């Protein structure tokens, strides 16, 4: 019997390397994620997306410095004024500066999106890993995911706010509930697929504990699709957050949000056409930035697998 060479299989703590005529399972096309240093977000579309998202976040964080007025300040004799050097986006129906409210609205919306989506990703990923390892847990989690996916986002949001009342917390809960099944099923599917690869089978054949194989081989190779879905989910969460605020079941007034500013502009576009421009640009830039990041990560995965 001819000896074969181990390709890419990591040594298992407490196990002896194979010797003599014992055949070793070759790693084959083992994903190279753990040992590679790729920077898809520092070039091309990825860099552009990062810059766009960072610009919006910086504008929101620096709102107290950038905004010419407080978001709730009512300015004398400034009802529905058009754009000017004093009010770049004009004023609203109750004499407040639209630019200031847009900048402060970024803070509220970004806080919800960038906390709720990662929280949903972490909880969903944990559920997916557990589901892939235990049959009973798999049945239970899949049925829970079916229930969550049965409700459209706005129907779930309306039902929740009917119980708790409007606010930022219900928006966050809705976003988390929508992300749970997406990440749960993604991680479950990816984990089951990686477990069948030769280098994972080799580690199991050498007596590696399940937890070690999961931590050393499976989870690092599941991380890439999770990152892609995270970027996509953030762009979707921007729409969900804005829609809930637009129809009045989100953040309570007078606290500004992009959706509420956009909703208030609908009835006053004839007086101040620039009223809606600010929140629309911010929403578009956020979504575009997240989409570009997702595209860069996806293209990098395709190149790695080619």
Summarize the entry for a quick read.
With 306 residues, the chain is an all-alpha fold.
DSSP strand count: 0
Helices, by number, come to 10
Biggest β-sheet: count, sense, barrel? none
CATH superfamily: MetI-like
The number of domains is 1
From the alpha carbons, calculate the radius of gyration and give it in angstroms.
25 Å
Distance between the termini: 33 Å
Query: Which structural class do the helices and strands define?
Result: mainly alpha
What would you say this structure looks like, in words?
The protein is an all-alpha fold and 306 residues long. The protein has one domain (38-71, 89-305): MetI-like (MetI-like fold, Orthogonal Bundle), CATH 1.10.3720.10. It has helices at 44-61, 63-66, 98-133, 135-149, 153-164, 168-195, 198-205, 210-246, 258-266, 277-305. Helix 3 packs antiparallel against helix 4. It is a multi-pass membrane protein.
